[in-house]
Amino acid sequence: MAESNEDEIIITEDEIKDAYQQVKEKVEYKQFKQRVELHLDTYKDSAFMSKDGILDMAIQEFEEGQNIQQTHTNQVEKISQLIEGNGNISIQGRLLAISNIKTFKTKAGKEGKVANLTVEDDTGKVRVVMWTDNMKYMNRIKEGDIIKVNNLEVQKGYTGDLEVVMRSNSSIQVLPEEAAPNAPKYEEKITKLGDIKEDGEYNIIARIIKIGTEREIPKDDKTLNLITLTLMDDTANMEFTLWNKDINLIDTLDLQENDTIKILKARAQYRYNQMGLTNSWNGRIVKGDYDLPEYKQEILKIGDAKPAEDVTILGIITRVYDPITFQRKDGTDGKVRSIEVADTTGKIRVTLWNKETEIAMDKGDIIKIEDANIEEDDYNDGVRLNTGWNASIKINPDIDTQTHDELKALINTTPTPIEDALDINQEEGRDIDVIGRILSIADIREFERFDGTTGQVRSLDIADDTGAIRTSLWDEKADINQSLGDAIKIENAKTRVGQSKMELSVGRSSRIITPSDEEVAKLPSYEQLAEERYHEKTLKELEDGETDVKVKVRIMDIGEINTFSRDDGTDGKVRSIYVADNTDQLQVSLWGNDTDLKFPEQAAIVIENPRIQLQGNDELRLTVASDTNLRQATQDEAQSIPTVHEIRNKLYPEKAIEDIDDDDRHIRIKANIQEIDGENILHPMCPYCHKGATRSENGFECNSCGQEIETPEYLMIIKTVLEDETGTISATFFRKEAEELISTTTDEVIEIFEKTGDESSLAAKIEDLIGHEVTIVADAQFNEYEEDVKLNVKKTEIVV
């Protein structure tokens, strides 16, 4: 076989031999191979044929015992005498019809072309199939010509009738009229639209007055696509429908509204109480300058809108809502989308359905909607436009300059600078568009609404070169693809007063989109915005109450999550972590969903805009608030943050007991346990206010709020006396540090006490720690009652 290129179907010699085994009793191998090669050459560009299909075609021909023969003279055959399977033949006759060229993709992704001719001699007529290599003849022929088509193969078509297929080396000759004196005459009869009363094929000349929007019709297990053109002549209007791949003819022929066209072999059919036209397989659309009445379209002013059918409006899009997917009664999915359109007389809400929701459109686009219906709008106390089945939608159509400028003047599509959005002197509730970069982004948080349903919200800080604003994304709007530093555009965000500042709320009526490259180019980089917004400081440099600061730290310790009851009876959560840089260590309070920390100990993190508050012990504490961004440090940022080992060596100086001062913080002590109290290590606590509780007749009672408690929480506290070569000092271990000291969790201790009924049952085990060496990090505190210094253990590093 001849070698094929990489875009063609390739059939190996072995594959031909395997297929030949099925018909070896009926034909010589050489003849079978020639048939395969013939089909391979014929269908090399076809997107509808496969290797197996070609082999099966050859097998079927010989299994059916057909008289397969190759003529060597390329003789002219009468159309009525064509025999399926014959090749290398010619036909000659009158060219009655030429279809439009249609394109397709081959299996290799290459573009192919196909067209059909109808040729008739004095014995019959037949379809001629042309492929890509034959398209060079299309400009040399026209309906009515006498033609001879050479080097054809006869085969059965998809309708079951015989057809002839051109090969790559086939040719078409245009002959003089006398070459076929008995050929039927060609008459191109043009029928007026108003005269089409019966089903059949007609030639028409008409003006396109509307090109509809592409529609989809589900049928069985596939989807059919169609576009309907509304045509007119001086007698009537009629719809002409293009199906599936014929839709491409609109682009191929550059068909526009108001064009005049001739359609040959249009198929008429009476359906749904009206006559309509469709394109036939051998039909052709010819765009030309035909003498037809001009069409003047009546456009409804939106201010005059009232319930009516088949109206046309022209306006500018002032609002675009995101599509919504819903389930139809038959279980299939549908889509709906709303937009708002305005002209110089008013505005109206428009409902788009299914395929229409995929049409690219933006706020500020001019839109023309034809043949839509105006209906009462029960939700918005007015009317709305429903596009329905027959509507046509054009985005930014060609219109006169005056109308274009009048519509464009109705809306300002320039985004609002963020400094204007922040203006607290303006009323809240304004709808504005903003473009900026995401300066901070929080995780999605779930919440329960008053009706018991669950919602979600995500907080962002968005910044441009004029400022930064806190933005809340609600429910489905919280699921965004953008991340930290990305550019984002939000349409119809609503302003609201937040924590003494104006904020933005982004809900169902808003739209989040990616800005254009031109819009992004106008924004400063994320690094520039972050540097301008947040002032980087060390922990030691922080001051009470200051805002817009950024600290880069490592997590030194992570506390447990504690629950509490709010005044409204709902449960809350709080957690403390300790962070440090090479200047200090501070406590950070996390509340609510922020307690679900996603970073481990020793992780490098960045905290932007924390609340900074001075506590009663004259120490600062940081709080992660709603407008705080807590994130993982980038690789470059992490390299500038000291390691945990470096921080400990810098912040946790090792001291002998005799050198401890009552204001020492984060000091490391290495000492032996001289005394340890293992008798009373669990202390009941109120689960509501987390204060101490004592036993009562009904269980427990809170010492602070007086609440009766059936099951208290328990706090583990272990008191010790530590000793080194210089002296002794009292040291108290709380919670996790106490658990690490005795290698037993609070829950395990409770379980042991419940089993034994003896709260001193662990005393002997705990007292076995006497004499063991421990290394701790602790804060010193002066005990006024006993007039000495004691230690509150913050970190248990080693127990030996």
Automatic annotation (TrEMBL):
Residues of the Replication factor A C-terminal domain: 667-796
One biological process term in Gene Ontology: response to ionizing radiation
Keyword DNA-binding: yes
Keywords linked to the UniProt accession: DNA-binding
Keyword DNA-binding: yes
GO molecular function: DNA binding
Signal peptide interval: none
Domain OB: 90-166
Domain of life: Archaea
One Pfam family matching this protein: tRNA_anti-codon
Entry protein name: Replication factor A
Biological source species: Methanosphaera cuniculi
Source taxonomy: Archaea, Methanobacteriati, Methanobacteriota, Methanomada group, Methanobacteria
